[in-house]
């Protein structure tokens, strides 16, 4: 019996000692669970922070790669742009040369045309100079006939012959001068035109004072002048008024 009693007491002590242990385990379990939840939260926070950092790094890498791509595109476009600008300058230079060539060619055409026309116009210059003497002689012959003999009412045979000769010479002169005029050769008489003395067209052989006339006025023509297509072929020899 004593043994049973002792066993019962031991078993009761064991039972009593188990319940407090169980009671002590409950707080530890809750603490562990709370620690696990905190750890999970910390892990989540750390994960979220790491994820944020990786996103920033990713965006920075994307930006860097974008910048690198733009730099590469710019480096690729830069030679093309330079080549394009060079081609544009070359086109402008070629266009300028083309326009200058056209202008030079047109100027050459105009000069050639003028030279050909001048050669054609003045081809008879030597012949015209040689012919002037014959025209002068014909003019002198007509001027040698006195005007009173032409207007004299005498009906003699000599006068009729003189008038016929004069009219024939006069007609010959007119036909000759018209022919020369068609070829650009013209005769001019400064005194008949009342012209002012022009050293480019006249040659003053003498000067005299004369009342009622202005200075440098041509009043007498000793020898008529000739022009070939507007160019002086021979200057007229004249007398000029000089009052002062």
Automatic annotation (TrEMBL):
<dbReference type="GO" id="GO:0000774">
    <property type="term" value="F:adenyl-nucleotide exchange factor activity"/>
</dbReference>
<comment type="similarity">
    <text>Belongs to the GrpE family.</text>
</comment>
<dbReference type="GO" id="GO:0006457">
    <property type="term" value="P:protein folding"/>
</dbReference>
<dbReference type="InterPro" id="IPR013805">
    <property type="entry name" value="GrpE_CC"/>
</dbReference>
<dbReference type="GO" id="GO:0001405">
    <property type="term" value="C:PAM complex, Tim23 associated import motor"/>
</dbReference>
<dbReference type="GO" id="GO:0030150">
    <property type="term" value="P:protein import into mitochondrial matrix"/>
</dbReference>
<feature type="compositionally biased region" description="Basic and acidic residues">
    <location>
        <begin position="55"/>
        <end position="69"/>
    </location>
</feature>
<dbReference type="GO" id="GO:0042803">
    <property type="term" value="F:protein homodimerization activity"/>
</dbReference>
<comment type="function">
    <text>Essential component of the PAM complex, a complex required for the translocation of transit peptide-containing proteins from the inner membrane into the mitochondrial matrix in an ATP-dependent manner.</text>
</comment>
<dbReference type="Pfam" id="PF01025">
    <property type="entry name" value="GrpE"/>
</dbReference>
<dbReference type="GO" id="GO:0051087">
    <property type="term" value="F:protein-folding chaperone binding"/>
</dbReference>
<dbReference type="GO" id="GO:0051082">
    <property type="term" value="F:unfolded protein binding"/>
</dbReference>
<keyword id="KW-0496">Mitochondrion</keyword>
<feature type="region of interest" description="Disordered">
    <location>
        <begin position="51"/>
        <end position="82"/>
    </location>
</feature>
<dbReference type="InterPro" id="IPR009012">
    <property type="entry name" value="GrpE_head"/>
</dbReference>
<dbReference type="InterPro" id="IPR000740">
    <property type="entry name" value="GrpE"/>
</dbReference>
<keyword id="KW-0143">Chaperone</keyword>
<protein>
    <recommendedName>
        <fullName>GrpE protein homolog</fullName>
    </recommendedName>
</protein>
